[in-house]
Design brief:
By secondary structure, this protein is of the alpha/beta class. 49% of the residues lie in helices and 16% in strands. Strands 1, 2, 3, 4 and 5 form a five-stranded mixed sheet that branches. Strand 1, helix 1 (15-18) and strand 2 (35-46) form a beta-alpha-beta unit.
Length: 208
């Protein structure tokens, strides 16, 4: 369908399907699906360590750990690969993080996308329990808290842009080899693109 962006959310035993040679293609040679959404990362709360963190189920982690065999070929054919994050029946939730909690968690998500070379994040606000409001990680569940998360992702993206400016200024001094500098700038640009996709997803969740 022309002009329609198609998403496919996958989990379970889907790695076996992803690695088959007879993947469906359009006439232009690209895959039929525009965005592959890996299901799922969970936003969890570790009571022992007192922090919110992300946890991938075994099937999702398998796909992430086999980037070259599974994710890379799909991206090379034009498919975007993003990860879905949702609650996991505890206090951690996408629309109930405090200002500070949203800022800290956004850093972890961005780092995960960088490490696993993903194209973005799908934020799925469900399956979260009522938060402990005395815990500094949390606040009352609200659209405002979801908006704060989108804002913190924007802030992280802005910081990446500023980082690229400073990297270029450092390059002009000659203190860093050009090859190494190019790698650093490329990495910051990749993180900025990932965070942009995450912000767009968060805004859609807020409007809905």
């Amino acid at each position: 369908m022309v002009g329609v962006t198609k998403f496919l959310c996958v989990g379970g035993d889907f790695p076996n399907i992803l690695t088959k040679r007879d993947r469906p293609h359009r006439e232009d040679g690209h895959l039929l699906i525009d965005y592959l959404v890996l299901f799922a990362y969970n936003i969890n709360y570790d009571a022992e360590k007192g922090r919110v963190y992300c946890f991938a189920n075994p099937q999702c982690q398998y796909i992430l750990d086999h980037y070259d065999e599974i994710i890379k070929p799909l991206r090379e054919r034009g498919m975007k690969v993003i990860i879905s994050v949702l609650g996991n029946h505890d206090m951690a939730g996408l629309a109930q993080l405090s200002d500070w909690g949203a800022r800290e968690w956004a850093k972890e998500v961005a780092e995960a996308c960088r490490v696993y070379k993903l194209d973005g994040v799908n934020l799925d606000d469900e399956y979260s329990a009522a938060p402990d409001l005395s815990n500094p990680w949390f606040t009352s569940h609200s659209g405002a808290a979801a908006a704060r998360l989108a804002y913190e992702l924007k802030v992280a993206m802005k910081e990446l842009s500023e980082t690229r400016i400073w990297l270029r200024l450092i390059g002009e001094t000659g203190y860093v080899e050009n090859a190494k500098l190019a790698d650093l700038i490329g990495e910051s640009r990749e993180l900025s693109r990932i965070l942009s996709a995450s912000v767009a997803t968060a805004k859609k969740k807020i409007r809905s």
